[in-house]
Predict the structure.
Amino acid sequence: AQKVTQAQTEISVVEKEDVTLDCVYETRDTTYYLFWYKQPPSGELVFLIRRNSFDEQNEISGRYSWNFQKSTSSFNFTITASQVVDSAVYFCAPRSYNTDKLIFGTGTRLQVFP
Amino acid sequence: NAGVMQNPRHLVRRRGQEARLRCSPMKGHSHVYWYRQLPEEGLKFMVYLQKENIIDESGMPKERFSAEFPKEGPSILRIQQVVRGDSAAYFCASSPGTGDTDTQYFGPGTRLTVL
């Protein structure tokens, strides 16, 4: 069975602080794909990043960076110098290699205050 | 290039009525997925379709719910005889293919309220 855990229910930071969102994906599969989506207050879902389980190279894109450690099943997402517009619910959503359905975590609500 | 389109954005139905939700995938995408989001929860997979075929409906309730993706036109999620528990946001996603091209892009959702 697969399990996605986003232990942080809500995080509040002040603008310009760095913030890391945690996600743990427990699975027996050796191949899987990991996705992060953002849901701002307007309600739509915005795709942020996709990573493959066989690629552990971490990545930085602008203010976003990702840290994937297969040994601990963690796929964490960091926003550097947060801005008020980053306020949203962030979902980790892995997918096993042999299925088409995304398994969504319960989400982490990020509030960035000015 | 237009994104995934869903309509209506908001739908209000009385108990016992039918709800029809529409989804037009992104141009060039032939795979459509439906998810449901209950209040304060994450999204739950419902069904995966390709043109004229249901590929995986393991998340669909056994009764009252059906989905189709005809050769022409949008994908339709149909809920018959709605009940208050059907109130939720229904999201459609599309992808261009499978494997490395299977990133799912979501529409804005349809918020269904059952009175």
Summary: Residues 52 and 70 of chain B are 5 Å apart (CA to CA). The longest strand of chain B covers residues 43-50. The two ends of chain B are 37 Å apart (CA to CA).
